[in-house]
């Protein structure tokens, strides 16, 4: 507004000067007025330029700030998720920064513990997750107890007659030590230099309200709670002044009085198998087996040539179904303890000599087939391998097949049926 007013004034000024020729201002006065106006205009012009410069400066500043922010945005990695039941440490997603992950108690981290925002604007490693730790994996329950996994803990469901966190206490021995008076004795006291000193027999410790009694030391409880090397391979029974180890049925105590040894019922004729049956000794017991040959069908029949072997009867001429059926089926029985380490070769199947140009070994089926695999140990031998730990008691079966081939045509097939008896205990 101010500028426009000044311009109008300048345009009308000559008219004013010319119309007041006689009595108006002298030339000097006019010149002085013009100088004043010129000075005013210069001042206005300077102020105007100054404000333009300031505005330009502010615009530059704003532009720089925005540019910096945009370029920063391009130098970050995508936001990372916090794993369930876990935490993420570090929130900066700029290039070069690290983020760490950890899990809550009872969970284990699977994936990368640390991830770095890389130049490529992507994170190093894999997005981790928290997996519940299986506290039962180490089989903490003793004496036939069943382990139930829970978050950050396990619970043992004890077999009858056992109690405690690990089913380590024989209910019977605990009960006797608490109620049977034979578990306490009188101390041996002597008066020495004015004070009474009492001692207990070996296996007892001083107890009672006024230390007037010797109470049996429960070795079983003490060792189990400390989780020291097993005092007994199976069960511990506390006795007055001592303890003894016991074994489950089917086992006898070894000479070291702590380990258990299987009773061979077959060798010691303690079995009740009939004459037609074969006695198979197992850890903790025995089995009576009588394998059967497959039933005759489609002109294919088998004859039992021994207790553990069936041979195919001669085939009718040009009967393909018969000639392609297994030439022989043999039966094998193995006994293992529970929870054996793997891999473990259990059985070998060999050809006496090579017929045809190649031999092939494979697994046909059987109960618990997933626990096995087959590998070749030499040109004529295939091996049945136990590939996963098995907790007993269990019975597994595998059918191992050996095929003789000539130019990819089957010449003959042989089958070995292997039955594995796995005991309840790891001894
Ligand atoms: Ca004792
Ligand atoms: Ca046995």
Automatic annotation (TrEMBL):
Disulfides per UniProt: 103-130, 158-167
Pfam families assigned to the protein according to its UniProt record, in alphabetical order: cEGF, EGF, EGF_CA, Fibulin_C, Sushi
Domain EGF-like: 132-168, 216-261
Compartment(s) of residence: Secreted, Extracellular space, Extracellular matrix
Transmembrane domains' residue ranges: none
UniProtKB keywords: Calcium, Cell adhesion, Disulfide bond, EGF-like domain, Extracellular matrix, Glycoprotein, Repeat, Secreted, Signal, Sushi
GO annotation (BP), single: cell adhesion
GO molecular function, a single term: calcium ion binding
Main location class: secreted
Signal peptide annotation: 1-18
SMART domains the UniProt entry points to: CCP, EGF, EGF_CA
Recorded family membership: Belongs to the fibulin family.
Protein's name in the database: Fibulin-7-like
Species this chain originates from: Acipenser oxyrinchus oxyrinchus
């Amino acid at each position: 507004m101010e500028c426009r007013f000044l311009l109008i004034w300048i345009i009308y000024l000559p008219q004013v000067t010319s119309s007041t020729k006689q009595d108006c201002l002298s030339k000097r006065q006019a010149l002085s007025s013009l100088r004043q106006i010129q000075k005013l205009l210069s001042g206005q012009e300077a102020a105007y330029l100054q404000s333009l410069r300031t505005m330009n400066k502010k615009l530059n500043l704003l532009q720089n700030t925005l540019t910096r922010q945009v370029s920063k945005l391009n130098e970050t990695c995508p936001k990372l998720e916090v794993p369930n039941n876990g935490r993420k440490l570090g929130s900066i997603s700029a290039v070069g920064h690290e983020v760490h992950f950890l899990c809550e108690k009872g969970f284990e981290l699977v994936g990368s513990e640390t991830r770095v925002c890389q130049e490529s604007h992507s994170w190093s490693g894999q997005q981790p997750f928290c997996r519940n730790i299986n506290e039962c994996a180490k089989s903490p329950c003793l004496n036939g107890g069943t382990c139930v996994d829970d978050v950050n803990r396990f619970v043992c469901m004890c077999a009858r007659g056992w109690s405690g966190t690990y089913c380590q206490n024989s209910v019977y021995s605990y009960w006797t030590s608490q109620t049977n008076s034979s578990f306490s004795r009188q101390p041996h006291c002597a008066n020495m230099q004015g004070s009474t000193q009492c001692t207990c027999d070996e296996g007892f410790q001083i107890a009672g309200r006024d230390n007037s009694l010797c109470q049996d030391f429960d070795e079983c409880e003490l060792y189990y709670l400390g989780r020291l090397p097993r005092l007994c391979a199976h069960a511990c029974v506390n006795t007055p002044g001592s303890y003894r180890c016991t074994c489950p049925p089917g086992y006898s105590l070894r000479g070291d009085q702590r380990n258990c040894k299987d009773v061979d019922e077959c060798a010691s004729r303690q079995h009740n198998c009939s004459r037609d049956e074969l006695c198979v000794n197992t850890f903790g017991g025995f089995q009576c087996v009588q394998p059967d040959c497959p039933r005759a069908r489609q002109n294919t029949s088998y004859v039992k040539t021994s207790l553990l072997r069936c041979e195919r009867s001669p085939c009718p001429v040009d009967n393909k179904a018969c000639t392609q059926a297994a030439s022989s089926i043999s039966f094998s029985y193995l006994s293992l303890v529970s929870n054996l380490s793997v891999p473990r070769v259990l059985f070998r199947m060999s050809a006496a000599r090579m017929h045809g140009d190649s031999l092939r070994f494979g697994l046909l089926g059987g109960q618990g087939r997933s626990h096995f695999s087959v590998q070749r140990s030499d040109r004529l031998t295939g091996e049945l391998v136990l590939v996963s730990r098995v907790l007993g008691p269990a019975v597994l079966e595998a059918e191992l097949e050996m095929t003789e081939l000539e130019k990819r045509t089957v010449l003959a097939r042989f089958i070995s049926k292997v039955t594995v008896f796995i005991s309840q205990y790891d001894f």
